[in-house]
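2.7 Reproducibility. Because tokenized structures are sensitive to small changes in the input, we list the exact sequence used for Methyltransferase domain-containing protein, including any N-terminal residues retained from the expression construct. No trimming or masking was applied before prediction.
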Amino acid sequence: MKNTERFSTRVDNYIKYRPHYPAAVIPYLETETGLTRHTVVADIGAGTGISAQPFLDNGNKVYAVEPNREMREAAENLLSRYPNFTAVNGSAEHTTLPDASVDLVIAGTAFHWFDQVATAAEFRRIGTENARVVLMWNVRQAELPFEKGYEKLLHQYGTDYKDMQHRNVGASELAGFFKPGTMQENVFQNAQLFDFPALKGRLLSSSYIPEKDHPSYHTMITALEDLFEKFKEQGMVKFHYETKLYVGQV
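Resulting structure tokens (single pass, no recycling of outputs):
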């Protein structure tokens, strides 16, 4: 399966159950990058528009570049109320955007899919002279007993979860992507509360999780239900995230 097709059957669950980004991201970027409502933003690997929406709410013009047709169409439907939103059929390596057309390039939980060398060249091409790049991830934590149990379930049933873990990107891996001395790092706290149907939807939003026609699907869902019943409090379980931001120039 091509990386651009991995989420084609996951769109509905992705929209409903993937974490959004903390509101504090926008004032932080106002301070660190000079973000204003006049800043033109390119959201690369925009998916269903989760990462674009805070900037649209801020009044920014946003070009949402996404190669997966199903996710791009979902973003168009969800964000059509924003006159400053434009969906673009493109990729990180070939956005199709004009030269020097954007002031801020963002990627929300997507950069790990990109070819870093080709992407850096493309970001330099589409960025204005002092353009900044913001790479964001919602990193699910696995410190508490429920979260540890969920992580164990992913290892047991995820078809290529270990391969996905190898795609995790941190400051050391990004050192060669940003211009030396320009990268800044910050962390925000984030969380989600789930009843069981929502927890199931969150699980099924992941591209490495078996779908209904897979032999292990029903066993996996039973294991998830057992995990939920063991750790639920007032009918809910909680995911904790660290939202990691890396800001710099390329």
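Strands lie at 40-44, 61-65, 85-88, 102-108, 127-140, 184-194, 237-248.
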